[in-house]
Design a protein that fits this description.
Elements: H1 2-25, H2 33-44, E1 48-52, E2 59-60, E3 65-66, E4 70-73, E5 76-79, E6 85-95, E7 110-117, E8 121-125, E9 129-130, E10 133-134, E11 138-145, E12 148-152, E13 157-158, E14 165-168, E15 171-172, E16 185-192, E17 195-201, H3 215-227, H4 245-256
Parallel strand pairs: 1-14
Antiparallel strand pairs: 1-8, 2-3, 4-5, 6-7, 6-11, 9-10, 11-12, 11-13, 15-17, 16-17
Bound molecules: calcium ion (2 copies).
One calcium ion binds near residues 207 and 210.
Length: about 270
């Protein structure tokens, strides 16, 4: 019995020692967490990235805005997201030097998803550090979407400077748009603050995300069209919740144009 009590007492002593070590080595548990949170909060105002872009598949010519992507419920199509949200996009930052080290579309220094509003806006925060990289240099900004073509902004953004940062993919003139190598679809013009603004949208139809809109994507779409599938799936290019010939028509148009992603290293940049 004495040995048992001795062993238990020794266990308690060791446990207290371990707890004390954890407490000392973890400043967050001693109240400094508030300071860290405050510091991050202060930094956020100057590290916000404001993106404007249109997705060709969801673009509504009547309003100049985006329709909401839909799912398909028991009573029919239903918006896949809350009011005002069109869909989700993925934002990536690529190093500008030695771009080929970062295989096109795969390895990036920072990547995150963001809600895209029906007015074509997305706002996100850029962290100070990501993937072991201090994000204080100049980076290419690319946008991915579940069934649209990966598209790179026309010029690198300098995150070594205080923000906020801005990238407007959707406004250009009638023949040029703000994507690398002028690589977006023209969607006409609207009046904005008494000025004519020409709108551009990211190409629709890269269903497998390989950077090309071609017969491979068409095969994927036709298989789902044949099965009559519905819901929030990549083959529903126009976002109405149903895979139909309307999606096929939009895809065929871009296959004929032989649309593909433009890599900033190999394509001319305005
Ligand atoms: Ca493809
Ligand atoms: Ca559809």
């Amino acid at each position: 019995m004495y040995r048992l009590l001795f062993a238990f007492n020794k266990y308690l002593t060791n446990s207290l020692a371990i707890c004390l070590i954890i407490f000392i080595c973890n400043p967050a548990s001693s109240g400094n967490n508030n300071e860290l949170t405050l510091s991050e909060s202060n930094n956020k105002d100057t590290r916000s990235l404001h993106i404007e872009l249109l997705l060709e598949g969801l673009f509504d010519e009547a309003t100049g805005q985006l329709r909401q992507a839909h799912d398909f419920g028991k009573d029919g199509p239903i918006p896949a997201f809350s009011d005002g949200i069109a869909d989700i996009i993925t934002i990536s930052l690529h190093k500008t030097a030695d771009y080929s080290e970062y295989k096109w579309g795969e390895k990036v220094v920072f990547e995150t998803t963001a809600n895209l509003s029906q007015t074509g806006q997305a706002v996100l925060e850029i962290p100070d550090v990501s993937n072991g990289y201090e994000l204080n240099e100049t980076y290419w900004l690319s946008v991915n979407h579940r069934n649209h073509l990966e598209t790179v902004y026309q010029e690198p953004l300098d995150f070594g400077q205080p923000g906020p940062y801005f990238a407007d993919f959707k406004r250009g003139n009638q023949t040029e748009n703000p994507a690398v190598a002028n690589n977006q679809a023209y969607k006409g013009s609207i009046q904005e603050n008494d000025e004519t603004v020409h709108l551009w949208a990211i190409y629709a139809g890269d269903l497998n995300g390989d950077g090309y809109i071609n017969l491979t994507d068409r095969s994927l779409l036709l298989s789902k069209l044949f099965l009559g599938l519905r819901g929030y799936i990549p083959e529903d290019i126009d976002g109405d919740g149903i895979v139909s010939i309307l999606d096929r028509t939009l895809l065929n148009k871009n296959i004929l144009k032989q649309v593909k992603s433009k890599n900033p290293e190999t394509e001319s940049v305005k």
